[in-house]
Write a structure and sequence with these properties.
By secondary structure, the protein is mostly helical. It is built from 8 helices and no strands.
C-alpha cells in the first residue's frame, strides 16, 4: 500500500496535467493562427508535460516531489500568463491605450517563456537548470530591445521627415552655400 502523501502528490500531478490540457484545449478552440504565440506555447507545454508524464510513469516520485520549487514556479508562470492573457483581451476590446495591451503582451511573453524554461529544466541535472532561465531571460530581453530599437528608428525617421520637408538634398544645399547662391536655396521651396 502506498503512503498517503505519495497518492496525494500523484493526484496533484494528474490534476496539473489535466489543467495544462484544459488550457491547451481552450486556446486551440479559439481557432488561433498556427503562428500565434499562444498556439506555439500550448503545443510546447503539451509536449513537455507529456514527456514529464513518460519520465515519471513508473516511478514512485513525481516532479512535484523532486523539484517542488520549479513546479511551483511553472504553475505560477502559467497562472500569471493566463491572467495577462485575460487582461490583454479585456483591454484590447475596450477603448484603452495600446500601451496597456503591449505591456500585457510582454508579460505573457516573459511568463510563457519562463513556463517553458521551468518545464524543460526538469529534464536536465540540477547543475544546468539555471541555464534555461538565463537563456529565457536573454531571449526575452532581446525581443524587448528589438522592439525598443524599432520604436526609436520610427521616431528618428519621423523626426527626420518633418525636418526635411521642403529642404534640398545635402549636396545641392552645400553647393548653394559655397557659391553664395541664395536663389537656388529659395527657388526649390
Amino acid at each position: 500500500m502506498e503512503p498517503l502523501y505519495l497518492r496525494l502528490w500523484k493526484n496533484l500531478f494528474q490534476r496539473a496535467q489535466h489543467l495544462f490540457i484544459l488550457l491547451i484545449t481552450y486556446l486551440l478552440q479559439e481557432q488561433l493562427p498556427p503562428n500565434s504565440c499562444h498556439t506555439i506555447l500550448s503545443f510546447i507545454v503539451a509536449v513537455l508535460t507529456s514527456f514529464l508524464a513518460v519520465k515519471y510513469a513508473g516511478k514512485v516520485t513525481s516532479p512535484f516531489e523532486t523539484h517542488p520549487k520549479t513546479m511551483q514556479f511553472a504553475i505560477g508562470s502559467l497562472l500569471v500568463y493566463c491572467l495577462a492573457y485575460g487582461a490583454q483581451q479585456k483591454f484590447s476590446t475596450a477603448l484603452h491605450s495600446p500601451v496597456y495591451v503591449n505591456a500585457f503582451c510582454r508579460c505573457m511573453e516573459l511568463c510563457g517563456s519562463l513556463l517553458v524554461a521551468s518545464l524543460a529544466s526538469l529534464f536536465f541535472p540540477d547543475s544546468v537548470q539555471w541555464m534555461f532561465f538565463v537563456l529565457c531571460t536573454i531571449f526575452w530581453m532581446g525581443g524587448l530591445l528589438y522592439t525598443l530599437l524599432q520604436m526609436l528608428w520610427k521616431w528618428i525617421h519621423q523626426v527626420g521627415e518633418t525636418e526635411q520637408v521642403g529642404a534640398l538634398p545635402i549636396q545641392e544645399r552645400v553647393l548653394a552655400e559655397i557659391n553664395g547662391d541664395e536663389e537656388t536655396t529659395f527657388s526649390a521651396n
